[in-house]
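User: Structure tokens for this complex, please. No commentary.
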Amino acid sequence: MKFKNEFEEIIYNIAVDIFGNKNIKNEHNKVIHIENKSAYSTVSFSGPPKKEVDVLSINLDGNLNINLLVSCKEFSQSKAEPSHVQEWCSVINTMNKHSLDSKYIGLVISSSGFTSGCEAWASSDNIGLIPPIKGAKISFEKEHITSMFKRFCTALLKRLEFPIDDLLNEPNLFDFCYSITSDFEGIIDADISSRYKFTDLDWNSNFSELVSSVFDKKIESISCNQSTITLSLSGGHILEYSYEGVRFGIDNTEFRENKGIPECTKGVENEIISFEEAKSLILGKRITSAADFQTYIEFGINNELNLALLSPNRLHLMIFDEFNSVAP
Amino acid sequence: MGFLKDSLVLINSNGEEIDIDILLNKYKNDTKRVLVNDEIGVVLYTADLDIFTLDVTPNGYLVPKKVNQIKRTRFGTSVIRLQIGSKVASYAADTIFRVKKDDYIIKIRADKIKKGMILESGEKVY
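Assistant:
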């Protein structure tokens, strides 16, 4: 298989992963013909309509005979322009108009995005655009664009399990593609980092999602080992703090070796207390606030005390009543 | 079409309100119906479930509209308060409005909408 550029190869490989190798063709300078070549309206001196294109062709479903034709654009300096979308609209329209039993849907994917004029053409002819045009200056990285394509293909494959005639009418495929890909804007703005990991699939996350996950959850147990201190929270959630960062979310660890005893202190004088005393002060109480100081993480508990996780084997409690009684 | 949770009231065909969290939780393991579930969020196909959203018309009537797809994102865009007609509501920054301009209609994001604009429905932005 030959590819014009690396981007096209990435897109092809994603399509193969999702739809399977036998349903996909990647062809350059391919001349595509209409299926019904004998209609009076298609007769010309050079024969019926044909078009030379670079196309990634995906047969979505053998029975329905739906074909997704993907035009993959990579420009180093500029965005894809309306003429690129118009060309693809024309190809899809003509293929459908003179089709015998196949249905064609189209998608244009551009590694550098699209100029704003492309949207109206794509929408009116029901062509999906990746990345989506969002009415604001947003630069999607190539990595995001390939992820969008993967997401679109995954959703489209599942969508085939349900009636899809509506998707064939404009602008429903365009809208479907937009609805699946438009939310990447949120993740770009979210300032996610590898410091925060959401447990489900080890997704990178951010402090805001951490707070949403732990807020108002009851602390059911606390344990530690050499590398991690773990809070088990109500609702099957956990929070794990280690030197690598913070993991939180639904507890999907089957077995946890937590036999360590952390060093526990309290108050401004760093008074040493037993682990049992520390547990008696925090277990069964709810997390009411959180702060990440990067070198350690701290939680407000029941508006009564702060629990600071200083390291995987050290925690510190600041009890408000005691603090107020010694404060000048 | 997909919707954002913050602008969505869902009802069933009997007019009873549906909690979107309960709905998403009910179908979270339905591998066929969950179109995608990844680090961007979850998209659920609902066209065959008789789920409707309620749109408020300029004269205050509630009109049910069928919901084909529900999505929840992990990280939404910022939220903006807008008064449109007599209704004040919160919208995600990338919510799209259809606005009259000269003799045609254009799309405008919520964060770019300006006072005095007239929506396709005839409602004015205050």
